[in-house]
Amino acid sequence: MHDVRNTANSDNLVIRDGLRELRRRLPSGWSATEPVHAPQPPSVDATVQVTAPDKRTGSIAFEVRARLEPKAVRALADNLSEQQTRHTYVVLSRYLSESTRSVLTKEDIGYLDLTGNARIVMTNPGLYIETQGAAEDPDREERPARSLRGAKAGRIVRALVDFKVLPGVRELAGLTKIDAGYVSRVLAFLDTEALITRVGRGRLQSVDWPALLKRWAKDAPLESRGEQQTYLEPRGITSLVGKLAQFNQPYAVTGSLAATNLAPIAPPRLAMVWCQDASEAAVSLALRPAESGANVILIEPTDDWAFEGVAEKANVRYAAPSQVAADLLTSPGRGPVEGEELITWMQANEEKWRQ
Known about the structure:
elongated
């Protein structure tokens, strides 16, 4: 049987430690009272009064959450919108993930965790606190690791992003050639992270594909998805493009060179190309190995799905926009900025690339 007293004691400890974290982050001259443990709507566990240097006061309402998934934030926001409260509402937890904090910020809900991640905004008296704490859960070893790292997860991401008509679990498993059980586990993870929406018996209703692409790039950066080798094309990138038009091996141009083929982004200074055998491709394309001053990166993918959905233009094969965007987000130089710009273009032109 669940011991309610143990839960209450645990919450009280979190409130105690949370108050300590709050006081550490208050500006000079501010103070905070001891918490008042008087549960009240909406699910408030304690309130704390803060006082500004000019003696004006405001109230912070803490709701303690042992764990808060991004998906649950939406329900929390709906609940708050129905309540009338004079308090500044703040979610208090031992740890809140980056994705959860992002959704809380989007919903304009304050948060504070015991590792130091905090965002508290009070109108009267004016108070703004935003600090960074731990990037990872210090107790993560207690739970199975979950991420989008790995070839199978990457295939699922690409399929969910590329297809406007969303497939079911079995269809997605057949499309990606991945076990349906694994597909179900990944979808369950994406559901809790509020990256997809499901209805009924788990049927996919929608995909937040821009957020999904960014999460994939974060969990599986470019360097984790293939072996890279750097080269120099002495005559420049335009010369490389001409050679690729005659190149017969499987390949897919990605990065800035592919992005400019879709959207008006800055002229590329670095060409990135997925290919099955980088050394052989370098010989065929007459590229020179270069540790510095390189203008070409050849990447041997850990999974051939990098070649899936390529589009040909002037006899040159370009990677799918979803692949290009994810690659740019963790590529060198201006890559991340160009990746964001490409995603903006993709949002405005879904009919040109989503199947």
